[in-house]
Structures are given as C-alpha cells and as structure tokens.
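Fold this complex.
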Amino acid sequence: MGSIFNTQQVINGLQLGSIYALIALGYTMVYGIVRLINFAHGDFFMVGAYASYGAFYIFNSFLGKGTPLAIVVLIFAMVAGGAIATLANQLAYKPLRYKPKLSSLVTALGVSMFLEYFFSAFPLIGASPLGFPEIIHRATFKIGSAMIDNYVIIDIVVAAILMVGLTLLVQRSSIGRAMRAVSQDKDASKLMGINVENIITWTFLIGGAFAGAAGLLSGMTYPRIDPYMGILPGLKAFIAAVLGGIGNIPGAMLGAYIMGLAETFANAWNSLLGAGIAFIILIIVLLVRPTAILGEKTADKI
Amino acid sequence: MSALLSIENMSHYFGGLKAVSNFNFEVPEGVIYGLIGPNGSGKTTTFNLITGIYRPTEGKILFDGREITGYRPYRIVHRGVARTFQNLRIFGNLSVLDNIRIARHFNFKAGLFGSLLRTPGALKEEKKIREESMQLLEVMHLQNRALEDAKNLPYGELRRLEIARALATKPRLLLLDEPAAGMNPKEVSDLMDLIRRIRDEFNVTVFLIEHHMKVVMGICERIKVLDFGETIAEGLPEAVGKNPKVLEAYLGKRGA
Amino acid sequence: MGKRKLPQMTLIAVLLYALIKVLSLDSIGALNGYFMIIINRSLIFVILTVSLNLINGITGQFSLGHMGFAAVGAYVSGTITTLVLKLSPDVASSYPIFIGAIILGGIGAAIMGFVIGFPSLRLKGDYLAIMTLGFGEVIRIILNNINYVGGPRGLLGIPKFSTFTIIYAFTFFTIVLIRNLVQSSHGRAMLAVRENEVAAELVGVDTTRYKVLGFVVGAFFAGIGGGLLAHLLQIATPTQYGFYASALLLVYVYAGGMGSITGSIIAAFGLTFLSQFLQLGFDSLSNMTGINFGSEWTMVIYALLLILIMLYKTEGLMGMKEAKLLVIEEGTK
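Structure:
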C-alpha cells in the first residue's frame, strides 16, 4: 500500500475539504456577525441536498443529464439553502438577538432537531436514505498512480469559484464592507447608519446558499442522502471554522482543507482515528489556545 | 502602626498600555485609607491587582508581611482581604441570607458526603453559618430582608448587602470600590457613618476608592492621589486637599 | 425545621410507591404492563434530567454530552452483569451485585465527569457546550469500536434487573441526595458560580473546584441512570447515547426550568408520558388515514416545543423555584 500520504489521499482530502469549506464559511460568517454557533447549519446542507434531488427529477426530463442541468440544480440547492437559513433566522434567532447567548444556541439545537425529524417524518421524504442520481456522467481517469474522477474536479472547482466570489463580495461590495463593520462592532455600525438586521439576513442567506451548494456536491460525490446527513459534516465544518479562528473567512477555508486532509489521512491509517480525529482536533484546539484561536478575548469588565 | 498591606514597585500593563506604573505604598493597620484620582487613573486596576483578578506585570504585594502576588483570588480572600465592586455583583437570584452564607462558606469544614447525607456534623456547621449570617444581617439592618431574592432589594440596600457579604468573609482588610456611587446626600452621610462603624466594630482596615470628595475628605485618615497611573500626592487629608497638583488633576483645572 | 422534611418526603415516597404497586396488581389492573414501562422510563429520565440540571442549571456550566456519561454507566454496569459475571435476574442473590455494578457505573461516569469538567475551567457558554459535545462524541466513537461490547450493534442480552422497585429507590435517593447537596454550603457555592463567577471567587469560593464538582456529581448520577436504562431496555448501543439524546435531555431541563429539581421531575414525567400519548395519537391517525405517521413526528413536536420554550418561556415551568416538599428550610434555593 505504501505511505498513507500519497497523491490519492491528498486529492481525496482536498475534495472533502472543499465540501467542508463551503459549510464552514456559513458557520464562521454567522458567528462573526451574531456570535451564534448555528447548530442547524449542517441541516441547511441537508436541505440543499434534498432540494437538488427534487430539482433533478423536475428538470431531468427536459434538460437531460449534463452541465446545464447541473447548473440549474446548483441554483436550486443554493436558493433552498439560503431560503431555509433566512427563515430560521427570522423565526427563531431574530427574536432572541439580545437575550443570553445560550438561549440562541439551544434554539439552534431545536431548529436542527426540527429540520431533521421533519424531513424524516415527512411522507414524501422519509427517514431511510435515498440514492442520489447521477447528474453528470461520472468518468474516471488516472494521473500517475492516483485514480481521479471528474467529480473531484467539479467539487474543488465549484467550491473555489464560490469562495473567490465570496471573497470579492466581502472585500469589494458595500454589503461586504457593512458585514465587516457589523462583525467588528454592532452598535457602532448602527450609528453609522448600517441596517444591522439587513446585514444579518444577508449573512444567513449567503451562508445557507453555500451550505446548499455543499449539499449538492456531497450528494453527487457520495451518492446517498438522508435527513441526518448534515450532523457530522456540520460538526466537522464547525470544528474547521474553530480551527481557522471562528469569524475569520480565510481561516475557515484553510481550516476546512486541513480538516479534510487530516480526516482522509487518519481514515487511511485507522478507521477509529478517522471517525474521532475531528473531535480530537476540536478538544486540542480549545484546550490549548482557546482565546487565540477564537480570535477575540471576552473581557469581563470589573 | 505596622503596614497591613504593602505594595512594592507594582506595575501593570494591558498590552502596551500601562495602567499602573511603579506603585509603592503601605496601608497601615486600622486606618481608613482613601485612593482617589480621575477616571482611568488606575484605581480599579489597583484593586483588581490586590485581589488577584490580574497578576501584576512587575512588583510585589504583601499582606500582613506575607507575599500574595499571583495568588488565586479566593485564596487572597482566605488570607483576609475582601472587596466590593463598583458595579454591584450580587447573587441576584439567591436570597439575601444565601448571599451572606456563601461568603461564610470557606469556613465550612464538612466534606461533600457530609452535605449529601446531611450528617450531624455538617448540619451543626450549617446551623452555625446561618446564625452568624443572621447576626451580620442584623448589624447591617438587613435582617428583615433575609429571605427575599437579593435582586428585589432597592439600590441602597444592595450596596449594604455587598458590604455585608464582604464582611462575612471575616476580612482584616476591606476594599470598597466607589461605595458612594449613585447615592443621594442622605445615603452618603449614612454610608460614612457605616464605614466608620464597620472599622470600629469589625476591627478591619478600610481601603476605599472614591470619586466623591466629601466622603474621602470626611472619613479617610490617609489619602493617596493618582493620575494616569502615577502617584501625585499622598498623606493626611488636609495636606492633600491643598496640594496644587491635586487641585489641578482632580478638579480638572488643566487646560482651563 | 430541617428535621421534619426528610421523613415527610420519605413518607410520601413510600405511599406513592405502595399506590403504584397496588394499582399495578393483576387483580386490580389499573396500571398495566404498558403503563409500568412508561413509569419506569419516566423515573430514569428523572435521574438523567436532575443530574443534567445540576451541571447546567445549578452550577451554570453547559453540558451537551450528558448522555455520554449515561453511556459510561450503561456500558460499565452492563459489561459487569452481562459479560463478566453473566448474572441472571432469576437468582435473588445477584441483585446486590447488580446494585454494586450500577454504582460502579456511576463511579466510572464520575471519573469521566472529572476529565470533562476540566475544559469548563477555561471555556464558557457556547464553547463549553461544543467541547462537551466533542467529548460525548468521542465516547460514542470509542464504544463503536470496542468489539468486546458489541461495537456499533451494541451490548445485547443485558439481563433485565431494573425492576420498578429498584428504579424507584434509585430515583428517590438521587432526588434526596441532589436536593441535600444543592441546599448545603457546597451547593450554595455552586449556585454562586452560576450567578457571578467573579463575585463567587472574591467571596472565597474556589470556583475551579465547584465547577469540576458539578460535573463529577452530575456525571455520577447520569451514570446511574444509564446503568438502570440499560438493564431496563436490555440493550445499550452507542447511538442511544449520542448527541441527539443529550440534546433531548436539554428539552427536559429547559421545559422544567433551569435550576429547579422540581421542574426536572415534572418535565421528565410529563414529557415521557406526552411522547407515549403522541405516539398513540399518531398511530391511530395512521390507522384512520392510511398514511403512516412515524415516531419522528413526536420528535418534531419536541423540537418545536424546545424552540417555543426558548422564544416565549425561557424560565420553563418552574423557573428556579422548588416545590415546598423539596425545600429543607426557608430562604434556600
């Protein structure tokens, strides 16, 4: 078998990391703006996967498999993810904005449980896993000793395009500037005439849309979806965001790729370690340098 | 008079900002000692350093001749230093009595199992703590409030409760952080009587930070004036009150 | 004043026990086997909820991995009775050993609580929640990978030692002991940590010690609850004790009121019964309509309940108040 650190594993790790990155961004943006660990974020990813599944069967008949269909399905996934995230924000998180932080956290748990069980209870969907259709024909080719299929490229490229887009949005657009301002200081932003609630809505919308896109990529790549599919990737993406310094957008991307690689290598070595590596990383990061990694020191003025 | 508290070459920096710079002073046993100075002059930071909330960047703190620099706050309390806070820190959802009992807690010798099983030994100690706490509430004229939730008390009583709670730890040195803040003139003069009475009845040394000139000049026997982390005057109230540097810094004549 | 409360509680507990026992007699038949199962589950959930409340509501920390502690209790006691000693519930002399195994499970969980309590010294609020979640998941993953205890399939064929009497007795002692603790000097120190950590430290409370103590004692009783559950259901699987089971316990604690033992007791009974009635309702709905309404709908309602509590009644049913019966003396919480 040789070393576990071979090209194949690196590629697999980057592919997984791309999916984590899209989810981690939503976590980190929402945390940056409203200081909420949105437990339901992984479920927005799940909603995106189911929306893609539905969109495939609606449009397959007149578009046929291939790139145009994939783009339509991607748009559907992103709209669904964005819509559900915005809805959750409006109905569940907004009323608790100025209540203790833990109230929102527990509410987020409630939203997460609700989405998962509602999807598994809903007759058309159900708790049992569904096989995800092939939207684009899968083709495998060989580079050196590594087997690569076109899905690897799709995952990595789509994630990269979206992330570049987000970076431009945050750096260049007025919404992006407002987002950065709000994440620095909510009250000062308000005084500067920024509509803070508006910016929070945008943040949920974008974060949810990215999670939805990740849902599609994950469905295509690992072709099985179920209502609970968001739990573990959600947690791992969150851990990636913590690893990169939560609230920090490039940090979340970097953390996600590290997470994807670490998990792939660990899995190749030992499946127990593979399953636990994310949590081990979490525990180490939080124990060793909680304040540094979280990027901010919470001062308790005495 | 020997020094109960002595601070030697103490400095503290937040990042690059110096909050307290090369402090040296002694609080003699038995006096009412006042530390005054404008906002941001390092008063509360000094209290936070003495009580172990911050660890001084440089220097030493000695209490009763023994070093307490870098001790965890609760251990400093056990040594005999208690304090109140500028913005009240009451256990609001607990009863007034419980607020006091918690401060008597560290004398509680019964272990976990004693409490779980309510052994006679543990119950006897609980009874003693309750009695002592009620006595203290009586001295502070709070006995009628004992069973109320602390958060329901009016402001003046909360201030008294906080002092009572500090006294419940049986301190030798009591640090009061702006005790007169938010009080009307009548309450201020009651407070001054109370502080004197506490010093005499509980035999404690009082060290207070205050904005209120009347309080400081009225009850303090020794005064130290700070400005931007440095001492500009020190001594008896009459002398300090006439010091031109103090008048300038404290009464804000600078630039006028 | 304090002297009278325990006998009074004991008396009521004994009467309640006798009442349930009589009503469940075959000749009376008011409480059939189905009801007894619900009552047994409710009692175990009382233990789990009260013990979580000690950590989250009383000490003001936040555990999202509480079922991890219960898992340790379930697997330790289950391994002893099932795999090591191969005890049989038909032999009267094996009951004391079973009780010993349950307590050992509690001790195992307490050790885990000690380990997990340490992060609470550095982390607060949401990060502590995430950390405990991480630890809970690590416990689950490890159990998944130990073949000796069945791996992902779980520990099967656990003897059915958890009788109503045993569960009832353990629940009673859990309530009494935790009540005693909370209303003691040590308990007040824990409450002080919840109310204001800085102030607690500055009136001489060793906050480090009391945070860890909250985790250790809470975990101990969770381990007891887990052990009893395993010997009631006769199976322990890693998924039973996963993150969502822990999250579900939060619904119970919040519904009853953070910091109220009384609230936790009422919530554990109320919600366990509610879930059974909802199940019956959905079953008959399925029969009537021909559409299958699965058990997931119950969970949908629980999730909505949690959201609604957080939005409209954060203090839960009881807030921080206790029933008179559980208050040892006035002026204590």
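Residues 15-124+139-228 of chain A form one domain.
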